[in-house]
Specification:
90 residues, mainly beta, 0% helix, elongated
């Protein structure tokens, strides 16, 4: 028997590509106590003296765990959040 699964569902660790100061964006939608983000919505920005990187939701879902606090300096490839997809990108 073959079963199909959505590869985007489940927890995903979102990392920053560059180092800098992290600023988390508030979600447009709250679902109880969950911070709920739509696909491609900005979760955080990481800014240094040369460039800015947007960390976006890979699909519709919520933050399961936040690894760093707002406003702190992070290094390259630092894990920022664990994102859980709901698998519903309508």
């Amino acid at each position: 028997m073959r079963t199909g699964t959505d590869l985007r569902s489940g927890p995903t660790v979102l990392r920053t590509r560059l180092g800098g100061r992290v600023r988390f964006e508030p979600p447009r939608t709250l679902c109880g106590e969950l911070e709920f983000f739509r696909a491609h919505e900005t979760i955080a920005t990481v800014t240094n003296d040369r460039e800015t990187e947007r960390i976006v939701a890979p699909s519709t879902g919520f933050l399961r765990r936040v690894h760093v606090s707002d406003g702190v300096e992070v290094g390259r490839e630092t894990p920022l959040v664990v994102f859980c997809s709901t698998g519903d990108d309508r």
